[in-house]
Amino acid sequence: MTTATTSSSEPRHRGGLGLPILLHGADYCPEQWLDRPDILEEDLQLMAEARMTSVTVGNFAWSALEPSEGKFTFEWLDRLMDRMHAAGIRVILSTPSGARPPWLARRYPEVLRTGPDRRRNLYGGRHNHCLTSPVYRRKTAEINRRLAERYAAHPALVLWHLSNEYGGECHCELCQEAFRAWLRARYPGGLDDLNRAWWTGFWSHTYTDWRQIESPAPHGESTFPSLSLDWRRFVTDQTAAFMLSEIAPLRAAAPRVPVTTNLMGAFSGLDYSRLAPHVDVVSWDSYPAWHAREEAGTGFISDAAGRDWVVAAATGFTHDLMRGLKGGAPFLLMESTPSVTNWHPVRRLKRPGMHVVSSLQAVAHGSDSVQYFQWRRGLGGFERFHGSVVDHRGGARGRTFEEVAEVGRILDALPFAAGAAVPAETAILFDWESWWAIRDASLGPERGDTSYLGTCMRHHRPFWAMGVPTDVIGPGADLARYRLVVMPFLALLRAGLADQLDRFVREGGTLVVTRGSAVLDEHARCFLEGAPGPLAGMLGLQVEETDELYPGTTNRLAVRAGGLPGLREEYGISGRCDLLRVEGAEVLGVYGSDFYAGTPAFTVRALGRGRAFYFAAGFDDSFLADFARVLSRQLGLHQALEADLPEGVSAQARTAGQEELVFLLNFATAPRTVDCGSGRKDAVDGGPAEGAVTLPGFGWKVLSRALSR
Ligand code: GLA
Ligand code: GLA
């Protein structure tokens, strides 16, 4: 778990969980099968065949651990821990707060969640708990303490897994009071400060008593951007506070056992950058919609033509985002489906090969594990049709089982990947607060280039397609280790970031800022000097007006000859277009049509030893690809393979000491040939891997070579 910082020129090697192997495991629910010891026996046999090395246990087991208040029944878990240890399987032990027994909710109704409409939920489902309730915190701390005291020294235990997918919010009176207390701490100057920060002169909202402040509600306040922003911040902080109340008894009784919680990737509800510092290792649950067709409104990243590499690129972004939460340290893939995901709108089976290649993708981007939800399908409950390693036919060893075992075989062959770094010199700056501000700030609906997440993914994709390892980092990250930082649509500029970016550029960094950035301050207020606020000097420009194009209509980017060699003369523009007044920037391209034809659209400003680019509009994908190629050549950015990758193939590198692994993954259905150069070996199956290597559809290869540095 140590994280050694090295200079940016050396490969970074970080601990992650610090185990000498890549874990291969699954969520396991023996508490649902306690009356079937024969099934539990069979599970151990099948786990060995599937080459499982870890299980996550106890995630929703509160009823089995405390069937009535104060009566604890750990004996089944004792036996399970011992059996797993004897079988050489590591246990990730979960705290049970994600769902609670009916007796608890009945006895203490305050533990249940209240919706934005101020109605308290009935008992049911999961994740249905108040973030503030002192009773719930006491009850979870109590059972966590008992788990920790009982299993702290158990040799099978490698990691605590906190709750399950923290998320959601509660609007009960306890939470309203906590919100007001949080606001008092945030605005120590009192209501005057708050009124100024929230711009409450608008629509006569000036508050004169803290008790007048309420959380957003569909039948109350839903249009005040600064209030919404502070509410979202509060929900994150309250979730972190709840999480810390879960962690305290674990750390007290088991100080050497690391802690994680399963995150949900690009989940907008919580600012994960504020949760990550409290856990020892980041883990997340990845459920991409493989083989999906785009369906309006489903919110899934997919492609109208069903191209899986589009999904793979988005998934690669999300892995990079999760890795970035702890400064590039390896993370864990806590859950993924071995076959179908029951809650997807269309439940596609993973096509043959997809399971292996998508599992290896996680490892390629820095995961030290491949884990599944779930080991065995239950016979009842909401998830009885979710994918599993073992299906309802029990011991039947079908196609899915064989592919899972194949993942186990590959991970077994790659122990030296555990803890290995991703050698990124390129970063995309991503900030949950900008995401929230864009949604709340009536900058327009989330579509096309106005979708924050989609915009960030679009700017990441060309680097992914070239095999340029890329970190996705938060605004607090150390920029010094990067040569290139791309900051797409960072609407909300946190205090201090402008100075940090200015320093990065002056010291030789290349920065790319895209339109819509720096339009709001940290309170979601506009800047008196307009956009891009305090970045105007560094970029050498001001935004004077912004036009929006109808969906389906375009403008053109006319690239100036001699500006940036390697670009075409013309590209497409869609979405919003900033009309600029340039004050010090060099103009590299202008608009091709409309009343602002000929005015600047694409600029660069040299500053110190670096430079800062500005894209005034949504440039098309071919521009982003060409621009990324030009920059990576100019800057000599590290590429996993010095080869042009065919469409659909991903190449990702991980480095450990003097060893470099390259994961070549074909997300196309057709075979693809890649030039692997010389000096590389096949890290899994042995033998040389040089020159032209052909990967079948959904095929893969892991290459290794010694680094000469
Ligand atoms: C109406 C209202 C104004 C303002 C404008 C905005 O006309 O009267 O207060 O909201 O719409 O278009
Ligand atoms: C999430 C949860 C699991 C399960 C899976 C199903 O990741 O953590 O408990 O519900 O989804 O996809």
Description of the molecule:
By secondary structure, this protein is α/β, with parallel strands linked by helices. The chain is 29% helix and 19% strand. The chain is built from 17 helices and 25 strands. The strands form four sheets. Strands 9, 10, 11, 12, 13, 14, 15, 16, 17, 18 and 19 form an eleven-stranded mixed sheet that branches. The protein is globular and about 75 Å long. Residues 164-165, 262, 285, 287, 335, 341, 373, 383, 386 line the site of one alpha-D-galactopyranose.
Main traits of this protein?
alpha/beta; 11-stranded mixed sheet; globular; binds alpha-D-galactopyranose
Give the oligomeric state: single chain
**Beginning-to-end CA distance, first to last residue:** 26 Å
Mean pLDDT: 94
| Strand element count | 25
Shape: globular
Low-confidence stretches: 1-11
Topology diagram in text:
Blueprint: E1 23-28, H1 37-49, E2 54-57, H2 62-65, H3 75-86, E3 90-94, H4 102-107, H5 134-151, E4 157-162, H6 173-186, H7 191-198, H8 225-253, E5 259-263, H9 272-275, E6 283-285, H10 308-324, E7 332-335, H11 354-364, E8 369-372, H12 399-412, E9 426-429, H13 432-440, H14 452-466, E10 470-473, E11 484-487, H15 497-506, E12 510-514, H16 536-539, E13 541-548, E14 555-559, E15 570-582, E16 586-591, E17 600-607, E18 610-615, E19 617-619, H17 621-635, E20 649-656, E21 659-666, E22 672-675, E23 681-682, E24 692-695, E25 700-706
Parallel strand pairs: 1-2, 1-8, 2-3, 3-4, 4-5, 5-6, 6-7, 9-10, 9-11, 11-12, 12-18
Antiparallel strand pairs: 13-15, 14-15, 14-16, 15-19, 16-17, 17-18, 20-21, 21-25, 22-24, 23-25
Residues 164-165, 262, 285, 287, 335, 341, 373, 383, 386 line the site of one alpha-D-galactopyranose.
